């Protein structure tokens, strides 16, 4: 595990274009233009995710297709400590609208975000074959919550980038006919999540 994480760290350093030191000394990653964050936002937190992208087969027009119903991932720090969990959940500030969610593993602070139109990339110069797209997620307003004892690690988040993805794409089989409706597929993926703040 330690060797694997070290390899991931080296690959991450190799793919990051350092555009100057940012808050906390974390460099800004090199990403496709359309998922860059606005000026004035700096990286303050990074997590390396291991988990699954979870799909269910549903009707789609005259056919059927796999639809993502939630990711389920754990994010780790560079020293292999769990830092957050990632999943979909109702945002209490939007009347329960389901949003991508991250909850801090120590202080239970949480952030909800969404992908705006155009904020996703499958650019082959960045995104590996068979990997889920790289995306920029914008934190909903309001879209953060302190933990039950006041923990606030994630509450300053403004944007989140999912980059360096591997795997996670819905399978090509198992959802081709009406009889397949309801079938689920849990597809392994890894990714790096960069959290930004404007503070």
Q: What does it look like?
A:
A hairpin with a 2-residue loop joins strand 1 and strand 2. With 199 residues, the protein is mostly beta strands. The protein is 7% helix and 48% strand. It has one helix and nine strands.
The unreliable regions are 1-23
Helix content: under 10%
| Number of contiguous helices | 1
Biggest beta-sheet profile:
8 strands, antiparallel, barrel
Supply the helix-strand structural class: mainly beta
> Strand tally, please?
9
Rg, Å, rounded: 17 Å
Helix-strand string? HEEEEEEEEE
Overall mean pLDDT stands at 90
Q: Estimate the strand proportion.
A: over 45%
Shape: globular
What's the topology here?
Blueprint: H1 2-15, E1 42-60, E2 63-76, E3 82-91, E4 97-104, E5 110-114, E6 120-121, E7 134-145, E8 157-167, E9 184-197
Antiparallel strand pairs: 1-2, 1-9, 2-3, 3-4, 4-5, 5-7, 6-7, 7-8, 8-9
Which structural traits does this protein have?
single chain; 199 residues; mainly beta; 8-stranded antiparallel β-barrel; disordered N terminus
Structure, briefly:
The chain has one helix at about 1-15; strands at about 40-60, 65-75, 80-90, 95-105, 110-115, 120, 135-145, 155-165, 185-195. It is mainly β.
């Amino acid at each position: 595990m330690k060797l694997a994480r070290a390899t991931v760290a080296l690959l991450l350093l190799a793919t990051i274009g350092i555009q100057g030191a940012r808050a906390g000394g974390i460099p800004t990653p090199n990403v496709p233009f359309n998922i860059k964050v606005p000026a004035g936002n700096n990286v303050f937190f990074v997590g390396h995710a291991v988990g699954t992208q979870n799909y269910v087969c549903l009707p789609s027009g005259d056919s059927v297709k796999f639809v993502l119903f939630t990711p389920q991932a754990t994010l780790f720090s560079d020293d292999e400590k769990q830092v957050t969990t990632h999943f979909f959940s109702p945002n209490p500030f939007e009347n329960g609208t389901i949003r991508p969610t991250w909850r801090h593993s120590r202080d239970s602070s949480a952030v909800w975000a969404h992908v705006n139109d155009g904020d996703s990339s499958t650019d082959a110069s960045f995104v590996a074959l068979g990997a889920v797209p790289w995306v920029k997620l914008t934190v909903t307003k309001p879209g953060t919550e302190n933990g039950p004892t006041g923990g606030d690690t994630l509450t300053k988040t403004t944007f989140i980038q999912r980059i360096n993805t591997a795997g996670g794409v819905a399978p090509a089989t198992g959802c081709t006919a009406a009889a397949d409706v309801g079938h689920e597929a849990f597809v392994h993926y890894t990714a790096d999540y960069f959290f930004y703040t404007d503070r």
